[in-house]
Amino acid sequence: MSRADLSLTAGFILVVTVSVIQGQNGWTVTYTSNQICALEGSTVDIHCTYTYPSRIKDLDTEVEKTFWFIKLQNEEPVDLRADSQFSGRVQYHCSKNSCTMKITDLRVSDSAVYKFKFISNHPGGRYVGEPGVTLSVTDLKVVSKLSIYSYWAELTCRSSCSLPGHIFYIWYKNEETIVISETYSDYIDSQNSYSCAVRGHEDVPSHPVCVHSESCNKVIYTGRSICAFKGSSVDISCTYTSVGYITSKLWFRSERSRQWQNPSQPEDLSKDSQYSGRFQVFETETGRSTLRITDLRETDSAQYYFKFITWGFEWRSSLPGTTLTVTDPTLQVQVIWSSVGPKLVCHSSCLPPGRSFVWYRNEKKIQGETSPSYSGYVEPADSYSCSIEGPEGYRSLPVCEF
Questions:
Q1: Ig-like domain location, by residue (predicted)?
Q2: Over the stretch 217-229, which tens digit does the pLDDT of each residue have?
């Protein structure tokens, strides 16, 4: 019997043990666990092992291809690496009789049934492991139970699937830690916002919520993690609300602490010489602030935070802001073989937000191809390369061996 082991980094697993033996005549894929509950933004590893006959009709068996899938196209499984939904977020680590798939930066839309398939050198020698592994990706939400007689409230941190074990949550008021407990009960000030995170996984907290009113002091970042290329530009945004009149607001990074007199007085990026001529803050609408940094450098990689101050309140946070990672461009065309021929995927270890892909055949741009997966027919005699749309002009090396 083969075994499938499921593990999760920066997230959680709900394991349901079942006795499943699949296969016939030595072809097997067996799952000892069939469900995972993982936090949005975390990383998951799904590992399986498989068996097959060592020899059929005097011919040694060789496995020619292994892959994971969730979709069918023309009744054929689509290799997850060729699915634009997972561009830059899926890696395979396979060896003899085992294969591990890693998915990073999990999204709620990744919730699906994942199946493993292997193909051998024998006619008809292909096998799909059923029933697969059900992955449920959840975010956290604060749910309040209010008293009808006072401002007393009980707050619960909810997920859409059951996280395993005895979970403790870290509770935050205005993103500052207040207590570690399963629930939080207290007299709730309507001016404050409340959020929660699983202890040990503070990098994926819930959104802050107002309990007794529609408006309170809070900051919500548009994205917790952004990757960008050196020399390019990036926008880091957040929305914010304040009960009082705001007297000042600023963006800062935690690592630039040499001028901090105390944690409540960070260094305003507009006064930092490192960003001179490359820094801009603007508001396209009331309550939305955007930090734009141009001509990015690797030294710009940091955690970025937004802060506002009123006459009687100062926004502080012990939670992560937006993490910016600036890196060299690394584009590569991966050739993935399928039943209908080669599929081309433009792979990048860093996928800047809001960028489209550009494909080239024999150094000429192919019109209408903007996905990381090339949808056209691959001509064996032609060369193909890809780039990410933008002024930087980064392009992969061409591939021409099919």
A1: 131-212, 320-398
A2: 999 999 889 999 8
Sequence-distant (≥ 6) Cβ neighbours of residue 396 within 8 angstroms? 331, 332, 333, 346, 385, 386, 387
What residue type is assigned to position 257 of the chain?
A: S
Residue 366, amino acid:
I
What domains, with CATH codes, occur in the chain? 4-138 (2.60.40.10), 141-210 (2.60.40), 218-327 (2.60.40.10), 331-388 (no CATH)
Nearest one of 335, 328, 388 to 358, comparing CA atoms:
388
Q: What is the DSSP string of 236-271?
A: EEEEEE-SSPEEEEEEEETT--TT-SSTTSPPPGGG
Q: What is the pLDDT of residues 68-115, one digit of tens each?
A: 999 988 888 989 988 888 888 899 999 888 999 999 989 999 999 999
- Kindly state the DSSP code that residue 200 receives in the 8-state scheme: T
Any residues with CB less than 8 A from the CB of 336 and at least 6 apart, and which?
67, 79, 81, 82, 342, 343, 344, 345
The region of weakest confidence among 55-69, 157-171, 213-227, 255-269 is 255-269
DSSP 8-state assignment for residue 299: G
- β-strand partners of 248: 309
**In angstroms, what CA-CA distances link 31 with 11, 246, 318?**
21, 56, 40
151: left (phi over 0), alpha (psi -120 to 50) or beta: alpha
pTM greater than 0.70 = yes
SS3 of residue 382 by DSSP:
coil
